[in-house]
Amino acid sequence: MAEKREKPAPKSRSRDGGDKRERILRAAIKVFAKHGFYATRVSEIAKEAGVADGTIYLYFKNKDDVLISIFDDRIRKLIELLERLTSEAKTTEERLRSIIEVQLGLFEGERELAEVVTVNLRQSSKLLKQYASPLFNEYLGLIARVIAEGQAEGTVRDDLSPRLLARAMWGGLDGIALNWTLGGGGPEKLRIAAKQYAEFYWSGIVARAAENTH
Amino acid sequence: MAEKREKPAPKSRSRDGGDKRERILRAAIKVFAKHGFYATRVSEIAKEAGVADGTIYLYFKNKDDVLISIFDDRIRKLIELLERLTSEAKTTEERLRSIIEVQLGLFEGERELAEVVTVNLRQSSKLLKQYASPLFNEYLGLIARVIAEGQAEGTVRDDLSPRLLARAMWGGLDGIALNWTLGGGGPEKLRIAAKQYAEFYWSGIVARAAENTH
Amino acid sequence: MAEKREKPAPKSRSRDGGDKRERILRAAIKVFAKHGFYATRVSEIAKEAGVADGTIYLYFKNKDDVLISIFDDRIRKLIELLERLTSEAKTTEERLRSIIEVQLGLFEGERELAEVVTVNLRQSSKLLKQYASPLFNEYLGLIARVIAEGQAEGTVRDDLSPRLLARAMWGGLDGIALNWTLGGGGPEKLRIAAKQYAEFYWSGIVARAAENTH
Amino acid sequence: MAEKREKPAPKSRSRDGGDKRERILRAAIKVFAKHGFYATRVSEIAKEAGVADGTIYLYFKNKDDVLISIFDDRIRKLIELLERLTSEAKTTEERLRSIIEVQLGLFEGERELAEVVTVNLRQSSKLLKQYASPLFNEYLGLIARVIAEGQAEGTVRDDLSPRLLARAMWGGLDGIALNWTLGGGGPEKLRIAAKQYAEFYWSGIVARAAENTH
DNA sequence: AATGAATGAGAATTCATTCAT
DNA sequence: CATGAATGAATTCTCATTCAT
Q1: pTM to 2 decimals?
Q2: Does any strand E atom come closer than 7 Å to the Cβ of C203?
């Protein structure tokens, strides 16, 4: 228990040009994507990052923490980006399209990152719990809030739980990203998929006049 | 390398009730689902199965082989079950609802299969790429086929890729199942979620007369 | 916390003649005595015992547990032996002489054991706590009881705490053993020391008629 | 090997209050007492002393050297103190009481030093044999000398070896101190114990007119 | 066929020590 | 003199797999 999260992180940029923490994360993404989390040796990350094995432990609690940090860092970026975009967008539909584009767009040109996030993240039960981390929940909450607002203004059907719809969106996009990762199509495929998914998703939740879907 | 697949498999069903191979597989599903593939010790499987550690190696080449065998045996059964259900159902909508219920493990006795699909699928990248992927594609293909048939008969809109919609469904359900697993609500929660998801999904793909979703 | 003490100990004597647990303990005494607890590698113990590294962990929880077990095993022997001897002895004086002889006598011909018990035992704080272990207290209690009985029957002065006198005896004998260990005299030296110590000890605690020690 | 003893010791007492070497030693006593020599990290000493890790190495060759220095510095002080006290005391009995009080009393205001002396002394067999032993012998010799003088003047029975009696005293007091350390009673407990032990000890060695202890 | 004690390769992590600043 | 980030050798312990019984 009593996990002291967040390593103090030696005030970076001391001897070398780039931020060491960042270098390690980038190296980890590379090797995790290649061999998977469990098959990756800490020494491989160190080698790829050009640091000593022990240095990793100056910036991360342990190997798990490296993977978690990759996830957290990206989710953090997603959240920041989305908070800006959703406040700029005029309508609920636009907001949701933004979210979809951004979540998939983050992976464009970073297939390795996509693989780590979609595949490796579930390889440890510890990480699985992290999956329900505050940060991840914040992200889901952000989506759910947009949906709830849509329901309030009457543009989104209100017989479905916003949380469930948020989860469904995350899962759907995650599945698409996984498939793209395994499949090996170009970035354009991902962009097309994003468009179609947005189409499908909006149709699924939009409020309709007098209609019975059954 | 030099993989000599298929163990001789001691002429099953000797004197104990179910044959041992089956008992081991069942035990493995149970513990894999609980702790994940990597965190599961071979000795745990043995204990759960009520056999000695060494016995596992009479039926399986190694630990990996146990997981692979689960996919070979079980997912195939899951696919068969789905094929039967989808052929029995009258309409596309009913077929899709069946799939949703099956994947979420709502058919009694099939919960373990659901867990294998949602939890274990991503646990070994090697596996994912080598063995699981083809099978997984078969599973996705089955969903896609149902959707394509819907498009052919005009009940499903035809401007969206069936494959993409299949992936979206799988991902969405996977997310919901994972959330449910971590959250700890009762089975009724899952059933409600299934209903809502089906509602949402069908709305998202159903063909509509003269309508513009934009 | 929740330390599950006592390893199940694979029902010994399977493949080899001698009890493996015993062999490991004997080997550990040897190498601990030579290099000290911390400087001793687990692999050295294994090598000396002629077993694989991992085998150690079938019989002991960890390296600490090996040292603790040495201590516990010997104290247990001491207690058993002493309980017999003290019930056989006629007088309190004889009982105390027995204790002294036995505690030092246990080391006769086992200089290495003496070194481990007197020197190495304090090398780990975990062990230090063990020092206040039930077993050790039982041993001290046994000595204290003999003294208290002497006080009750009037042969031992009753203005001194039996516990303190017990501790003083243990410490004194431990100190003598340590010195003998470091010094390097023969076993006869230890026997002479035992006799003199008994002499001194008894004089220190015997009840005297009308006398003032001040 | 190739031990270059004695670090240059930066010209002490620069601008900060006490000189740094002393601060480090004091800090080391504190943490050694708490965790033991091996479990203490150099960085902990540094932190406690309020200096950087590297600074330790400006004043001491290595971690071992810190422990050795504690003994060199402190035990020497203990010996000096005892030499003064024993020359001031009038009778042998008083001298021995002084020693007992000092050995236990020294610790009264310096429980931590007590722990280092009693507990840590045995933590490094290398240390014990190399450095501590000569000094320790000097300390024992001091006690033995007092006893021998008592024997010469006829106040102490002369059928017991002064060295043995010295060892017995040290061991007995060490045991009492250890017990007190682990037990956690107040300083008064220690003072009472000292009194009782002195009582017992003197009774054990005092020369008696025509008496037979058997 | 079944067992489970024994194996030993393998890997994460720690921490004393160094040295560029 | 002082710092503390970086190093990387060193070590415990785990656990898949084997094989004598």
Answers
A1: 0.84
A2: no
